[in-house]
## 1
Amino acid sequence: MKNICCIGAGYVGGPTMAMIAKQCPDIRVTVTDLDEKRIAAWGAGTPPIYEPGLAEVVRSALGRNLFFSTDTPKAIAEADVIFVCVNTPTKTFGQGAGRASDLQYFEKVARQILQHATSDKIVVEKSTLPVRTAEAMERIFHSGGGSVHLEVLSNPEFLAEGTAITDLERPDRVLIGGHETATGRAARHQLLEIYARWIPRERILTTNVWSSELSKLVANAFLAQRISSINSISELCEATGADVEELSRAIGTDSRIGPKFLQASVGFGGSCFKKDILNLVYIAETLGLREVAAYWEQVVTMNDHQQARFVRQMVASMFNTIAGKRIAVLGFAFKADTGDTRESPALAVCRGLAAERAAVVISDPHALDNARRELADLGPAVAFETDPYAAASGAHALAVLTDWKLYRDLDFARIFAGMEKPAFLFDGRNCLDHAALHALGFNVYAIGKRAWSHL
Ligand code: UDX
Ligand code: UDX
């Protein structure tokens, strides 16, 4: 194999292809996208997304065997393997609006591949897709009546943002789904041989196509479910005097439960969890599996509730009015170490605060451009400030919404001195030292913990 093409240079396509190019110097990898600005940024070795360690990996292969281009037809024609990494957002219109995946970009790409493929190719679904999408893709491929054979594989990506590079270097597993036919098995083997260059073979799982497609949705649903489960318990903790962190430790040491993804928070965000669960719910509904759909929908309902009750608690503890009060929001990204704000809980919280007519000042080390874009409709109700000290100056309250490490190291005595009194701090990530903050004079409210109040 000599040539790989990847269509879609986003959070998934860019890092994944950079890693393949780094690990396989003999394979030529071309990543294409409609977005010229994105391609120019990648091609200059300055990725358009913030991801620790990514620029180094890109630069290690750029111009050697890693190329970025907007000429998708040419890249398709030259490729032996085509990865499809275009986005598959939740539909906003028509049937399944708000739940089903919008497959229009994906289908356009399938047609584009059919049009420009002049030799046999392996087409890899990397985007997260509803189960049995490969079947639709194959129907399109077979509609041309041409002699070219396009073999479809499913190879979902499990990387998490912020840790994409280590996740790609040392994944828990790589999943490759293919058809149980001679061409399907051969294609699966070819893709497996690429990953086997740097990933132990026992970590590369092969399945049929439908299992692979569904595994991605289910993995995200299970991860999100753990967060909603612990978040539901956080409310119970606040009502009973139990401490959710002590609870996470107590249950997480049971090896059957395990310690990960039990961090109570203001809610999960990111481009995947909500979208994938709603997609799972939609698939279950269309198959008439009402109980299954209702079961998984609760994970999203609980997440919405967690965000709404965070705002309610802020208002209630600040004497039932925040109108005209300056509130500094520390962190807007959906998690630390990314500039991504898609589905960030900060969106719902800031909108909730603005609806109460607070003067919201948002600070974030990497997400302010995205925050400005996402909240453009709020106009002067929100302001943006890179420096967290400037954001906090004159504020009645701080709300920590992203667990950036830098917030742990802030000089809170200095911040407290510059705030209105009584000064409030709402820790939506349980990432600060609440006893120490209370000792400085703050009234501290965290998730699933007793309040540290002077009032
Ligand atoms: C990924 C996955 O692919 C998606 O299925 C998953 O559920 C979320 O993560 P991501 O890489 O985060 O998507 O999306 P994004 O950053 O939006 O990148 C997609 C890219 O595809 C964009 O740069 C877009 O310009 C490009 N694109 C889209 C094309 O090049 N051609 C198209 O026809 C459509
Ligand atoms: C997720 C999956 O982890 C990844 O495998 C998949 O490929 C894409 O979706 P990502 O959304 O990038 O990755 O980040 P993740 O680390 O899973 O965090 C998602 C959200 O959950 C973040 O908002 C995070 O802050 C929150 N979270 C995570 C919690 O609130 N508590 C936890 O214990 C863990």
## 2
Amino acid sequence: MSIFLLVISFSSVLQVQAQGLKDAYSNYFKVGVAVNQRNVTDPQQQTLILREFNSITAENDMKPEPTEPREGEFNWSRADRIADFCRQNGIKLRGHCLVWHSQIGEWMFSDSEGNTVTKEVLLQRIRNHTKAIVSRYSDVVYCWDVVNEAITDDPRATNRYRQSKLYRIAGDDFIREAFRAAREANPKALLFYNDYNECDPVKSRRIYDMVREMKAAGVPIDGIGMQGHYNIYGPSEEQVDAALSLYKTIVNHIHVTELDVRINEEMGGQLQFSRQGEQVSDSIRQHLADQYARLFRQFRRHSDVIDCVTFWNLSDRDSWLGQANYPLPFDAQYQPKLAYTYIRDMAEPKWPMAVKPASRPRRQQAEQRTTPFDPARAFEQKEGIIEDFKPSSKNQPGRDYPQVNSQGYVRLRVEAPDAKSVSCSLGRGGTPLHRAYDGSWVGQTLRPEDEGFHYYHITVDGGTFNDPGAQNFFGGTRWESGIEVPSHDQDFFALKNVPHGRVQEVLFWSESTSQMRRAFVYTPPTYDASKKKFPVLYLQHGWGENETSWSQQGHAGLIIDNLLAEGCTLPFIIVMTYGMTNEVRFGGLREFTAMDFEKVLVDELIPYIDAHFRTKADKWNRAMAGLSMGGFETRLITLRRPEVFGYYALMSGGQYQPADIKDVRQVRLIFQSCGGKENPDAIRQSTQTLKDAGFNAVCYISEGTAHEFLTWRRSLRELAPLLFR
Ligand code: XIL
């Protein structure tokens, strides 16, 4: 019994895995592929073709020039090989193509003396070619792209036709003649007019007009081929829908004949190479999958008229666009990509993707504009994701987005009515946003974010912008958007009803840099009311940040207020100034000595602070700490100026070695910390080495966090109680 069940379930697993695209779409349309000679001769590629596809197009081998390089001289060997592959495997062949201005023998247009032929001669040559190839493959070819790309791309052109040699010699009669000859040679084959940029509003109207007029005049056109050379930004679902809806009013057959999706903004029939390079980010992969999902959603919606969708090439390796364009469902190793999964699995409506973009909000009626945004309609609800999303605590006043749930998933929403692409830097490699039903852009991170504070920004049509929903925080050398993913221990930096200290801005003259400089000074709650003097911690930010970072996103003051309220730390002053780190470029760290900053800090700022605040102005009441690059500075400066500081702390900012410090008695505390997702072992080991050498060394690891502010907030909480004891 149990073996029986096992066999059944195992075989059903196999069945599911054996399902190719053709099976997933068996209720909708054929799924085809354009092939080259290697594809139909390499056994592994043959297997892949047979598993996934049930229609084939010859990528080049049935075109006019390769099959008739000189008048009356036919070369069938390559076309035969593809036709035989189809015959042997019972697959149907799409014929591509009979008449095209490109890949056509130049002999067509000139006589033996090199003069341009007459219209009659050209039409006769077209008839001859068409008859020869159509009758040769009439047993296996079920449809033909009879005329390819005859309409102009120029939206301002008064004549709708491409000014090709074909047209200049024969006018649009070359189109009529080709269709008539093809029908005569094989009355059973469906005959298509095929073109690219066929979702463009101007061009689609021209294609429509031409086909309608020709059909009315008795030209045997059965269908329209939409080449489908698209990109991740377009066409939009609305445009695809509009084109299909238009074409289906005049033909009963539509084929998507040459589908591929580039990862740049190029589109259409011209061969252009991607400038993207080899690296494809997660965000681009996601964009590609999303665009394919949108396209196939429209194809399925119109499956009453679409009877075949053909990919232009088998894999990225075969693509005429080059593999850097990343355009197909199979990668350069013939492995299915995320796009493949989306296309195949969305054939059955497993998840609620079917949100059709409404018209642009700008154009909406006033009453529609007041309809509240409904997240249930806009965001994908996924199993395992808890629907308890709340606005981030770092949002701008009254802003609902970004939102975070209790697991750390982030939802974004941006209004950008005319944007073509929007993504967000959160999530590994970024998170793409897509248009929601109301025209806004929405997106959700694929994985939960770490708890704590993160910088991020939005990319709109390739440009960097802040999220209008979020407050800005200085990091990455700019005011970045910030988001707070609630942490389980967030109480220690929360704003509570306890006595609070004060953060004030001070402006001091710096002789060495000939300018006024700024620092923020935290004084504890008891500072104002007492006459006492206080010890001072000089606290440095990291690379890309500045003097605002520790008190704004670091919540340094709140952390100390809360510790004081619980009696866990002595009161002290904190001074935060700009560490002059942001001019250091990546790779230049080796030459970074922090000498300039040392002058500002030790010779200018410390005397200023000691003169303007009630400080205990000696080394045993002075500490220096820094995060990341600020830690690097702390190490350099404390070691060079042992007479100034008595307590040292490095937060994700390196380590001291016993050999660095000549006299064990020069320092009362060495504190070293980092996030559990950084290099905790190195920190633990070096702290142990320091202890073994007789130093008072303490190590702290912030569990579950990386090189980010929650690591450093926690580090400050751990450090404070150890200072000035
Ligand atoms: C392309 C082929 O893929 C390339 O190998 C060849 O060099 C040029 O033609 N529109 C069409 C196809 O109808 O025939 C084209 O195929 C791509 C654009």
